[in-house]
Amino acid sequence: MNLSDLIRDDVTERMSHSKLAAMLGFLAATVVFVRVCWNATPSDGLAWLFLVYMGTAAGNQVASKLMGLKWGGKNGNGAAPPNGGKS
């Protein structure tokens, strides 16, 4: 796996703007998260920040996978499933 695979579309091999935007968003959130935690004291109680950050990151990935399964078709290429999309 190359580093460019993180932002490249699997089918077209071109840069995926949605993957790039997600990566930049996660990078920005991670930088802010690390900075806040680095400057925190034990009495600040940052458990809610961990919950929100990890919940957002995990929720985004779960939603992406579910949308890919429902509308993505084989290999995420947008082709309709054999049964016409009906479960």
Describe the structure.
This protein has 87 residues and is mainly α. The protein has one domain. The chain has helices at 17-38, 47-71. Helix 1 packs antiparallel against helix 2. The longest helix is centred in the last third of the chain and has 25 residues, at 47-71. It is elongated. The model has no long low-confidence stretch (mean pLDDT 74).
What does this entry show, briefly?
The chain has 87 residues and is mainly α. It contains 2 helices and no strands.
- State the separation between the terminal residues, measured CA to CA: 33 Å
Radius of gyration: 18 Å
Shape: elongated
> What is the subunit organization of this protein?
single chain
H/E series, N to C? HH
Q: What summary fits the major beta sheet?
A: none
Mean pLDDT: 74
List keywords for this structure.
single chain; 87 residues; mainly alpha; 54% helix
Helix-strand blueprint:
Elements lengths: L16 H22 L8 H25 L16
Helix pairs in contact: 1-2
